Amino acid sequence: TIEFCPQSVDSGWVGISFYSASSQTRLEYVKLETYGDVGIRCYDMEYIMISNCEVNNCGHEVLEIGGGIHCYRTNTAISNCYIHECGWSKAGNSWTAPSGAGIIISDTSNATVVENLISENYGGGIRILRSNVYISNNTISENEARFMIYWINYDYGAEREGGGIYSLESTAVVSQNSIIDNRAFVQVSIDQQNSAWADSRGGGIFVKGGSILLTDNVISGNNTVASASSNSPYSYAAGGGLYCTQTTGSRIVHNQFYDNYSRAYSWGSSAETYAFAGAIYTATNIQTEISNNLIVDNSLESNGIIGVDVLGAGIFVVLSSDSIAYNTVIGHEGGAGITMKGSSCQLYRNLIARNYGGGIQDIDGNFVSILNNTIADNEEFGVMGDVNIKNSIIWNNDIVDSSPSITYSDLSMSYPGDGNILTDPIFMNPQGDDYHLRSYSPCIDAGDPDSPPDPDGTIADMGTFHTPRLPSINIEINPGTLPLIVYPGQSFGLTGSILNECDTSFVMDLSMGVIWELEYYQLQYLNDLLLDPNELITGHFTVHVPQYAPHGQYEYLARAADFGNGIIYDQTEFLFSVDRFPQEEWHDKWAIEGEWVSWDDERTPHGERSTIKAYPNPFNTSIGIKFELQTECRVSLDIYNILGQRVVTLLDKVSAAGKHEINWNASSYPSGVYFYKLTTDDEILTGRITLLK
User: Fold this and answer.
1) Region 584-593: what's the mean pLDDT?
2) Do the strands 261-266 and 646-655 form a parallel or antiparallel pair, or are they unpaired?
3) pLDDT at 584 > cutoff 70
4) 29: exposed, middle or buried (C-beta count within 10 Å: 0-12, 13-18, 19+)?
5) Using one digit for the tens of pLDDT, what is the confidence trace for 521-543?
6) Beta strands in 518-621 (DSSP E)
7) What is the dihedral of CA 385, 391, 394, 399, to 10 degrees?
8) Considering the entire predicted model, what is its pTM?
9) 3-state DSSP call for residue 632?
């Protein structure tokens, strides 16, 4: 191991320089610590391998080419290196502009950067100029591209791009990296009249020209910040996570973008402020694909007095024809989840939910196609713009300032269009951001019949997630009285039923448990439970609440599923509360007592059952429920909603043996799924009905 360190900070010394060296050159296990031009410089080489090196505090005196490692016209493999606090330049007392970077690769046909730690470098983490580069499995964190101007009459723009990675006219593959807490920062602090502006782009990654394949990366906490003085014309910040422009065939796939942001500030009354794209900004690209990304909790912020513009907290597309598909866009602040301006985009099977600045926004678009998207629970608006929407769900958000074309979609407001419905889509668990459809959702097989069929060969579903036509399994768990309040150390009782409504035998898994602050306490798990055709099983259970259980609200969850393949056939849940005061009764853990018993074992002999049927189903306003009793007995017939709450009792009296029919007029009840329950001295019969208005 060799350690290089200069005696003079101002020497301009280069740690190691290679020029036209052998293609067998290798540099390993070397530590360089210098304040000169660059730590390692490689010029005009056929190939060099640099591994297991540490480069600190290098490149403090030179513009553009300084930094930790600089490879020019040299095929390079850099691996397992630690590159820290490299690349800084300063001129005079009026401005600072860090340049260089941790690694600079320029005019190189084949370079790989693999498994390095590149952190806290000035001027950026990696700069790629006119090269072909493969970047994989690196941690690129807390690097900064900064430009600051203060106290002079400066009439030029202050611009900085690419805090983590900067790519210019290059072909880059960026895969499986952690790109975290990088920054592009510009500040103009001038108290004189001037035309200097502040412009920062691509806090995590900046790409201009060429193309990039960005895949399987974690891109988090990166930011662009532009701060302008009172006399500056504007401040502009865009692409907190990624800024991509003038590329061809770029792909942004299978990445996680979260907690990135763009912020534009003005400290006076004349400067305009623009903050665009907390996560992804694309402009004037050709054939860009943005797919299968998790884009969550990114944000925009601007404090300008005039000319304030904040657009696309998640994705912002400008003058491009991007394909945006299979993305999850949730929880953005300061702007819409997806904004398009002057673009012709195709949005397919995206989930756009719970964004606080709106769902989808189109400005001056040429043609925007929105097919099989779920746009739900967004604040301010769900859709803004004259777009074309089909086979989608637009639920619990508004359509504003526009007249989109909408067909074969489920909306929470009345809207004209062929095939549109107005009914609860019955999401699996929207409070937990699970917008899959339950197996009995009215949106299944309700899309345009002329659209391509779903993978199971059925008519297209509405919404993002295809739900196969599943076997009809109905599970119910009833605690009796709601709201339910229990105390630590106490117990409470449950009754349950599982009905196989199929004419064939069916094998399923069953899980029951309690959820507290996202932690799941499993109480019962049954694997490969076999149900005969039309078999009903029931159970009576006692749930023990442990003495240590914190007070608060809990959720009881029961699921009938094929857990091995990730398929949920049906589920039921209810909320209950644990109060503060423990009881003398003692239970040391969550537990359940009881078992499931076949209807045949618990009730009347096979062949002597009562029968029940509801028709029509689904129904509009009124439904007839027919049942036949084997003997005279006391009968109750109740209707329950999807939350397990009884909404009406249709019958409660002694009835004679034979056939009976009860009609339920549901005109005053909302659309949705309901359950009927017929209880006799010996039997419980249940079924599911759907009210569509």
Assistant:
1) 73
2) unpaired
3) no
4) exposed
5) 999 999 888 888 878 888 889 99
6) 519-531, 536-544, 552-562, 567-578, 591-593, 596-598, 611-615
7) 20
8) 0.75
9) coil
